[in-house]
Amino acid sequence: LDLLYLSDARDIYYATGRLLKTTDAAGDFPSLAAIAADGSSWLVSFTMDGDALVDQRFAYEPAYAATMNPDPLGRLSEVVAAVVAGGSAPDRVGFLRESLPWLLQDTIARVQRPGGWVSVDTQLATLQAIKDPDEVELMRGAIACSAAAYAAARAIIAPGVSELDVREAGHRAAVVQAGEIVFHNGDYRSGVPGGFARNRPIEAGELYIIDAWSCYRGYWSDLSRVFAVSEPTPLQTEVHDWIAGVLRGVQGEIRPGRDGTEIWAWLDARLREHPHLRAIGLRGHGGHSIGTRAHEQPDINRDRGGEILAGMVLCVEPSGYSPELNAGIRLENQFLVTNSGAELLSDIPLTL
Fold first, then answer.
1. CA angle, 270 as apex, 266 and 276 as ends, to 5°?
2. 276 to each of 246, 279, 328, how far by Cα in Å?
3. Which of 134, 137, 310, 345 has the most beta carbons within 10 angstroms of its beta carbon?
4. For the chain, what is the largest distance between any 2 Cα atoms, rounded to a whole number of angstroms?
5. How much is the CA Rg of the chain, to the nearest whole Å?
6. Residues 204 and 181 sit within 8 Å (Cβ to Cβ)
7. Model pTM above 0.90
């Protein structure tokens, strides 16, 4: 490649260190970064604020007198056209099929006239799958946000409390833990396998699955814990403890060279060893990789996986659902794959 274009805010962040997509509306404005084979680089975005590891910065106007402009992509394209005009035409330009808007590609094709376009989606995803130590630390920060949310949820969950109140308590705790505005949401419904919080009172006897998602400075955590609304039944306690044991045991199964389908099969087999789960097994996936995207590849599925490599961060989530459990249990932890096995990143109690 002579040149690489990046337009997804997550990829620009990965390459330049500048996080342009935030939790506010301004983060929805598009940007474009270019990295040349000779090492030179530039970035066009809606702001000149913050540091970015590029040689040149350019900006377009995102708003007029505090009113957001309705055509940010068009304004971005105008600046990009001015930046690339008059230069030599590159022979091979790399881009991401999943993210480069047609308008930007059309502008570059007309003004810069590259000889050919080369998709690099797979190559970039392969690089991003292996996490550097600073990336892992940011994911630890995201995990701490969810841990704080779980503590807040535990304090408020009781019969008659609204699911929305539980979700808002978790969200507030995540923000306070981070010390800044962060995204926090997830499955916050009681008595069902999943879904966003409803304006509905929690009922006694339900199991409340909270599959919490937090995004801290561009990196995600994805965890799941279960709370008993009132005193749990013996079956609920027994199955919860069994699935918790499966989650603890899977740490010894994660190592470089294994495939995600193998981990799924191991989880399914272990779940079926419990009489109540024998006919149920693992419903759906058993986890996925995580980073700047909440779900990355490889994943842990029955028929789709991929090779697990040192440096990846995996979320693993065994589960079991039935009417008798009202409605079920899903427990999830994050693991850093090391050369010798796996390190638990989310050391949050596995209690009902």
1. 145
2. 14, 8, 11
3. 345
4. 74
5. 23
6. no
7. yes
